[in-house]
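Query protein
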Amino acid sequence: MEEQRVRGGGPRQWWRHGPPWPNRWNEEERGARWPWRSTLVLTVFVLAGSNYAAHQQVHERAELNAFARVLLIVGSGLLLWRQRHPVAVVFGTSAAAMVYLGAGFPYGPVFLTVALACFSAVVAGNRRAAWGAVGMLWAGHVLMTHWLYRWLPPSGDSAAPWNQEVVIATWVVAIVAVAELARTRREQWVRDRAERAQAAKRRADEERLRMARELHDVLAHSISVINVQAGVGLALLDTDPEQARTALTTIKAASKEALGEVRQVLDTLRTPGDAPRTPAPGLSRLPELVEQAGSAGLTVDVEGEPPRLAPGTDLAAFRIIQEALTNVVRHSGSRHARVHLTYDTRELRLRIDDDGPATGADAGGSGNGLAGMRERAGALGGTIEAGPRPDGGFRVLAVLPLKVKAKEDDQ
C-alpha cells in the first residue's frame, strides 16, 4: 500500500483495508505519539460542559469550586496515557469521577473521560480491567446515592430514584458494548492484514518456484543439447569438418532458442498486469522437441495424440516430456526413448521410457528436475511416478487431470 501511495502521488487509500486508527495501538506508535490534541479538546469540553451543568443544577448539587475543577482536569489529563497504560488510566478516571460525584458536584460530561478510558482499555485488550473499573464506578454511585447520601454533600439531599440507576447502567452497558465492537473489528482487521500478507507471500513463493521451474526446464534441455553437440564438434573438428560444422549449427540453433525462451520468461516478470504475452509452449511443439533430442543423438518415438488442453495443462505436459528427455540425454546410456500419450474424459497420461543403463549416480535425472515435474503435476492435481524399470531402463509416468481450466482461470 505504501508503494502505491508513492507511485500514484495521491493519499494513502486506507479505507480498503480498514481505518488507520487501530494502528495507533501498535507498540512502535505507543512510544512515539501522545494523544494530547484529543485530550486537550476533551478537557476543555468537560470543563465547559460541567460549568454549564452547574448553572442548571444550582439548587440540586454542590457549587463547582476549584477542587471540582482540579478533579475534572486530573480525570481528563489521565487520558494522555490511555494508549500506554490503559488499565491505570481507566481506574484513575473512574476514581476521579467517583470522588467528584461523592463530593456532590454537578452531573455532567465527567462521565466522558471514563467512557473514553474504558473504550481504550477494551480495544487494547484489557477487557476485565475496563469492566471492573466501570463496575466499580457504578457500584460506588449506587452506594453514595442510596446509603451514604446522608453524610455526603450537598446537605439535605435525598436518595436518588432507582430508575436513574437503570439509565446509568444502560449507558455503562452501551459504552462497554461499543468498545467490545471496536475491539472485535480491530482484531478482525489485524487478522485480515495478516492473512493478506500471508497470501501475498504465498503467491510470491509460488511465482518464484514457477519461474525457477521454467528457467530450469528451458536451460537444462538446451544446455544438454549444446553440451552433446559441443563434444561431437570437438571430436570431429579435425577428422570431419562438415560434421563438426553441423554440430556447431545445432549449437547455434539450440542457444538461440534457449535465449528466446529465457527472454520470454523474463518478459513475464517485467510486464505489469495482464498485458499480452508470447504464447507458452505446449504439446504442439512436441515434433520440434523430438527433433532437438535427435540432434543430441537421441531417437524418440511418439505414440498417441494429445487432446485439446487448457494452457496450464498443455505447458505442464510439454515441460514434463522435455525434462524426461533431457534426463535421458544427460543421465542414460540409451540412445532411444519412447513417449506414449493416452487420455480419456478425465485425465491425460504421459509415459516416457528409455532402455538404460544409467551413466551416473543420478539415474533418471537430478533431484531438481524430478522435483520440478512433481510440482508441475501437483499444481494441477496430478501425479508423477518415476523410477527404474525391471529390464534396466527408466520410466516417467505422469497423470494430469483434464478438467482444470476453471481452476487455472481463477488463478
Remarks:
- The longest strand covers residues 336-343.
